[in-house]
Specification:
Layout lengths: L6 E5 L5 H8 L7 H10 L3 H4 L2 E7 L2 E8 L2 E5 L3 H13 L6 E5 H15 L4 E11 L12 E2 L5 H16 L8 H14 L2 E6 L2 E11 L3 E9 L9 H15 L3 E5 L5 H10 L2 E10 L1
Parallel strand pairs: 4-5, 10-11
Antiparallel strand pairs: 1-2, 2-3, 3-4, 5-12, 6-11, 6-12, 7-8, 8-9, 9-10
Helix pairs in contact: 4-5, 8-9
Length: about 280
Amino acid sequence: MLKTTTTHVRALTTSDLPELNALLDRDPLVNLFIRNRVDATKLQTRWLGGQVWGYFEDGALVSACHAGANVVPAQATPAAVEAFAEQAVSDNVRPSSIVGPRDAVLPMWKLLEPHWGPARSPRLDQPFMVLEHDSHLRPDPRVRPVVLDEFDTVYPACVAMFTEEVGVDPEIGNRSGYRARVAQLISQGWAFAIIEDGDVLFKAEVGAATPYACQIQGVYVRPDQRGQGIAAPALAAVVQQARATVAPIVTLYVNDHNTAARRAYERVGFEQTATFASILL
């Protein structure tokens, strides 16, 4: 007689933290975003701004999914992807994006597209890249952590990068939320820039971190400075400083079609280890 597997999905609570952390630690680089959120909030809803769902088989946690402003699956099996999509529809979740490993995001989007589609910007091939040591490039000595007094100098560059990359002006809608997020990154020492004569020539931030690794985001070169070889040495400096002050391994992901960025990251020493996808809604 065949054994029937019992499955269910539910919101995880603080009592689930040991099992959830063990699950996320199966791939601590790819699962970095969720681990960062879990470490920061301890799954308390008021801080999490959503939930983390768990998919269980015979009482054991098999997969997880962050469900808030972003839907992010972790260690998601095909059965878990289907269950998470059903849960999202049932709970009327309305995120701004679905992000994560492509082999989970694309089948999840296929199930959710009839309810949430069409996508504003589907990004179906995003190399996930890793660097575990300082770059062989000479780091640009002008790169340094941004200080909070420089918020008004750096903020316009953050808005410009976000608008260019995401296709939405972050000042429309929740402007105060975006300003608070930029200020938070600066306060944490996670924002880095080249600032000359009151102008931002380059900037990047660490968007998430665990004791094991961190993730760079928001890489920006002022438009009139592009094509002059600034990005790679500047990013090498960010890697060096992030490894010294945040976490020993540095990760990022990039759109496949952004060949200039990919070449810069490869020059720094980043290597692709996985593939992400993002569905911007």
